[in-house]
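Lecture notes, unit on binding sites. The following record was shown on slide 14. It pairs a sequence with 4'-deoxy-4'-aminopyridoxal-5'-phosphate.
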Amino acid sequence: FRSKLPNVKTTIFTTVGNLARKHGALDLSQGFPNFDADPLLIELVAQAMKKGHNQYAPMQGYYGLREAITNKIQKLHQRMYDPENEITITVGATQAIFTAITAFVHPGDEVIVLKPAYDCYEPAIELSGGIPVLLQLNNKDFKVDWNAFRSIISPKTRMVIINTPHNPSGAIFSREDMLQLEEILRPTNIILVSDEVYEHIVFDGQEHESASRFDNLASRSFVCASFGKTFHVTGWKMGYCVAPAPLMKEFLKTHQFAVFSVDHPVQRALAEYLRNERNYLGLGGFYQQKRDFFLNRLSSSKFKFTPSHGTYFQLLDFSEVSSESDEALAERLIIDHKLACIPISSFNLDHQDHQLLRFCFAKTEETLESATNILNKL
Ligand code: PMP
Ligand code: GLN
């Protein structure tokens, strides 16, 4: 056969995860918590199964869950999405993003992606025959240069993908950033895919500026979210996206033949759990404590860092620890020191190596303590 993705290798998360397991390393690589979800949420799934919600959910998702999402977005961002035709429940944010790209990108269309970028965007664009147009962010504060962004928009630009809070840097878009983006996109009919899976993990009193807050962004956006990230259940692969009705109608044409519908009892449980805002509003504070615990313990190490503004990732600059490539050091850390993290060069344009490693701090204090003990000895 002729590969449709000749240059794509196995994702870094699988490669590093496998190596970490093989060497029994402490795993701060792939982004998932090493503690369990609220027992109440798990009990709600069991109850939904016992009540017999074990057959297909409606194609767009269980209505009660869509209603709970409408209420949440209205409370947080003052925008009303109609649960009838503007919300779809998906297999994680990954399927929402994949489906949005598949449904709208035609062969030859350009799609703008800011690098470093989470690795699921570009292959999806290429499978649709689209052309990823990549803009590298600076490796200090990862702020977007909006003039540079404006200069790569062309008549062929079909879509822009943004991610705030940003994986892997932990940077977040300010209100000013969103207004700039809105102004640049205003005269175009470009579709925005806003990957907001870390929407509730924002630190130091800052706010998450969702695309749904801005009229001229919301009217062209798929805002994508993940219950896995928000409720510590990444293994459930549950997410959703919201978009104005005409966009969602087109999205559903693809969604219905990709998955038709997603896990029903879990949707029932999430609907009930989401109704209590205490179940997600404290998440930023919860993870900020972990970030601070991790960084305080590294204050006299040789690593340099700017504290993450959001997500549960922290980048560490290792330029004073080693002159190796990020991939070589990450491999040596696993094999010799039994600690796994993600080298981020593979997320950069042309695999640029800025000597940065990404650590996931969604871990117990015990794990973070052991990890920092290792890092402090380097
Ligand atoms: N986008 C980003 C930026 C992510 O870090 C992740 C990681 N899980 C996803 C999307 C995918 O989310 P999900 O697990 O809900 O598919
Ligand atoms: N989003 C998670 C991360 O960045 C991983 C998800 C995956 O393995 N695909 O670590």
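Take-home: Residues 12-30+283-376 form a domain with the Aspartate Aminotransferase, domain 1 fold (CATH 3.90.1150.10).
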